[in-house]
């Protein structure tokens, strides 16, 4: 009898819970958890901050036009931020550099005769494309040309860099690598095996071909081989001063700029 009574009470509780869950009052008062996917994102602060940053750059560039005697447009290849920072520090007392959005730099100087802030600066803007920057300086032209020409830093090439030479490893032992490196080298696509604790290539292996972009695997292998294929260089394109504008890049004519 007690067992039947307990079973009956359980059934009553179950029916009560089911009826409560289905009642309109419960459905109206119960809140569903918020979906993280539909969470609203406010972009106004981000846009405002980005605009303010651009305005600061424009102001800084326009102030530099007044503070320095001449402006140089330069291009760069295989940029290495740390080395470029050292170069900037070297010229800190006499020069100031700007890198970033070419469009912002163009707007700062003026992109046409009608909106340029000083005569001839629209020509400078036309040469700001690709990997380029501005150098404002009080140094003489000869000094700037020498510093830029002498600046050169060799480093390991990154993925996607165009190979400057063909690198091929010959079949045989690779004694520069310890035996623990064998699994890693195999992962890079190298046909290797262990022979009495020494890694050896079972066949010739081409790491990279001249003129072709480096794969991630080729970049890693070249680093292991100590092959610094990339060279960070700076190239002067043109010079502007209140008195004149001069094209300094070989093969580029002033008429090409004026007609563009």
Automatic annotation (TrEMBL):
BP GO terms, sorted: nuclear-transcribed mRNA catabolic process; ribosomal large subunit assembly; rRNA processing
Domain of life the protein comes from: Eukaryota
A UniProt-annotated Pfam family: RL10P_insert
Subcellular location: Cytoplasm; Nucleus, Nucleolus
Biased composition (Basic residues): 1-17, 33-50
UniProt keyword annotations, A-Z: Cytoplasm, Nucleus, Ribosome biogenesis
Chain ranges passing through the membrane: none
Signal peptide: none
Gene Ontology MF annotations: RNA binding
GO CC annotation, single: cytoplasm
Region described as Disordered: spans on this chain: 1-50
Domain Large ribosomal subunit protein uL10-like insertion: 157-226
CDD domains, sorted: Ribosomal_P0_like
Keyword flag Cytoplasm: yes
Task performed by this protein: Component of the ribosome assembly machinery. Nuclear paralog of the ribosomal protein P0, it binds pre-60S subunits at an early stage of assembly in the nucleolus, and is replaced by P0 in cytoplasmic pre-60S subunits and mature 80S ribosomes.
PANTHER family the UniProt entry points to: MRNA TURNOVER PROTEIN 4 HOMOLOG (PTHR45841:SF1), MRNA TURNOVER PROTEIN 4 MRTO4 (PTHR45841)
Quaternary structure (record): Associates with the pre-60S ribosomal particle.
Family according to the record: Belongs to the universal ribosomal protein uL10 family.
Protein name per UniProt: Ribosome assembly factor mrt4
Source organism per UniProt: Papaver somniferum (Opium poppy)
